[in-house]
């Protein structure tokens, strides 16, 4: 019953600094659809899902636009 608290301790969210690095590394482009990213429409996402043990680290991150990120998480949650 305490699973959600455990996720928080393991830090599921990328920090602001990590996000900037991820964004820069992706050349400000969504890694799914190629749309140009800005800090407003950008979301950092786990390459290997957090739920499967993926680390919240820059090397395990994808730069996605909000649309792609929403589409991806809808799919994951539906499974
Ligand atoms: Zn996209």
Automatic annotation (TrEMBL):
SMART domains hit by this protein: HNHc
GO molecular function annotation: endonuclease activity; nucleic acid binding; zinc ion binding
Keyword NADP on entry: no
Record-linked InterPro entries: HNH (IPR002711), HNH_nuc (IPR003615), NA-targeting_endonuclease (IPR052892)
Ranges where the HNH nuclease domain occurs: 17-70
Keywords: Endonuclease, Hydrolase, Nuclease
Gene3D superfamilies: 1.10.30.50
Any matching Pfam family: HNH
Name of the featured protein: HNH endonuclease
């Amino acid at each position: 019953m305490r699973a959600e608290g455990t996720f928080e301790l393991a830090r599921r969210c990328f920090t602001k600094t990590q996000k900037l690095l991820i964004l820069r590394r992706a050349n400000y482009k969504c890694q799914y659809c190629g749309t140009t990213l800005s800090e407003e429409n950008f979301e950092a996402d786990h390459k290997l899902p957090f739920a499967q043990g993926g680390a919240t680290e820059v090397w395990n991150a994808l730069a996605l636009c909000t649309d792609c990120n929403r589409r991806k998480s809808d799919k994951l949650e539906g499974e």
